[in-house]
């Protein structure tokens, strides 16, 4: 016996002439399009060549088992997977190459240019690069091969809907859409790293400028070093508050976030998207658009299935 749910208010957009997908998600055998915080339309693969579509609701407290294990534990669990081994080796080589290259550059700079600003900027870059690589490894481990295809199909459908404000009419239209999404869940991990990186850079540069003026008054290196640390911490805390809480300096953080968000999504999406997963995304979006954006739905667009048969 199917469990009936009470439909709650639909989360409407402030702009009636703009189509926005607030939330969509992909699981191992399904794709969801949400019309409020907890309720969604889901297209599910029945693993027998058929699909089912339904309206469902998440429980009030949904326990998501993700990132609960330490990275070493996860590595042990996946160490026998050939694809994981290749990625782990590649990630290790890239990390070692980056660290080695920057270390060599730092040594050369120490021999040629004695500049504290350069040193601090490079150290910050090393830390930032390490964060991005760890996020990529985490996303790769947490996303199976089949889920990458569904994740890509979900992004492609969302991008098509938001750009064209209608349903796609054939497979070719969806495949032309990007598999990268600016609103992917992985962006939260990237956002923190980017905001921390930007805060550090600004704090270092401003601190160095202030110290350069103070250095004209105080010549004692110990006093200068203490003042630099104090000034750096104060500026870092203030700048972090501006960026993280008040969303300032978006003109700096947004482009960096977009670039590295797309880089990370290379590890949780794929170019080889299955037709069956694109159909899943279409079916979920077909129900969703009729309820959330009926003004953008037209029965004339219901030719996707016919175009696939012909």
Describe this structure in words.
- The chain has 310 residues and is of the alpha+beta class.
- Helix content is 59%, strand content 7%.
- β3 and β4 (51-57) form a beta hairpin.
- α3 packs antiparallel against α6 (187-214), α4 (145-164) packs across α9 (275-292) and α6 crosses α8 (250-265).
| Total of domains | 2
Strand content: 5-15%
Structural class: alpha+beta
What's the gyration radius in Å? 24 Å
Instruction: State the distance separating the first and last CA atoms.
Output: 37 Å
Uncertain runs are 62-70
Helix residue percentage: 55-70%
Number of alpha- plus pi-helical segments: 10
How would you spell out the order of helices and strands?
EEEEHHHHHHHHHH
Shape: elongated
Largest sheet geometry:
4 strands, antiparallel
Biggest sheet: strand arrangement: 1-2-3-4
Number of strands: 4
Q: What integer is the average pLDDT?
A: 83
Can you summarize this structure?
With 310 residues, this protein is an alpha+beta fold.
What are the salient characteristics of this protein?
310 residues, alpha+beta, 2 domains, 4-stranded antiparallel sheet, 4 strands, elongated
Write the layout of secondary structure elements.
Layout: E1 24-27, E2 30-34, E3 39-45, E4 51-57, H1 71-78, H2 82-112, H3 116-142, H4 145-164, H5 171-175, H6 187-214, H7 221-245, H8 250-265, H9 275-292, H10 304-309
Antiparallel strand pairs: 1-2, 2-3, 3-4
Helix pairs in contact: 2-3, 3-6, 3-8, 4-9, 6-7, 6-8
């Amino acid at each position: 016996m199917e469990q009936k749910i009470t439909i709650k208010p639909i989360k409407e957009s402030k702009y009636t002439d703009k189509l926005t997908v607030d939330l969509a998600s992909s699981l191992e055998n399904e794709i969801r399009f949400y019309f409020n915080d907890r309720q969604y339309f889901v297209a599910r693969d029945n693993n027998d060549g058929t699909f089912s579509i339904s309206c469902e609701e998440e429980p009030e407290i949904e326990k998501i088992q993700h990132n609960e294990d330490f990275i070493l534990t996860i590595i042990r669990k996946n160490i026998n997977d050939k694809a994981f081994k290749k990625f782990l080796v590649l990630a290790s080589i890239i990390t070692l190459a980056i660290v080695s290259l920057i270390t060599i550059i730092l040594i050369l700079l120490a021999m040629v240019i004695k500049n504290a600003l350069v040193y601090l900027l490079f150290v910050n870059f090393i830390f930032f690069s390490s964060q991005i690589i760890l996020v990529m490894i985490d996303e790769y481990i947490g996303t199976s091969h089949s889920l990458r295809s569904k994740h890509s199909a979900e992004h492609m459908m969302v991008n098509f809907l938001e750009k064209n404000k209608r349903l796609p009419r054939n497979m070719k239209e969806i495949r032309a859409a990007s598999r990268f999404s600016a609103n992917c869940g992985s962006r939260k991990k990237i956002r923190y790293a980017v905001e921390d990186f930007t805060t550090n850079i600004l704090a270092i540069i401003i601190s160095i400028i202030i110290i350069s003026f103070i250095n004209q008054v105080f010549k004692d290196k110990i006093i200068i070093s203490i003042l630099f640390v104090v000034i750096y911490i104060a500026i870092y805390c203030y700048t972090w508050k501006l960026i993280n809480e008040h969303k300032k300096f978006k003109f700096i953080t947004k482009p960096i976030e977009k670039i590295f968000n797309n880089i990370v999504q290379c590890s949780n999406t794929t170019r080889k998207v299955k037709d069956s997963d694109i159909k899943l995304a279409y079916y979920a979006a077909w129900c969703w658009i009729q309820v959330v954006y009926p003004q953008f739905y037209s029965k004339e667009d219901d030719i996707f299935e016919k175009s696939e048969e012909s």
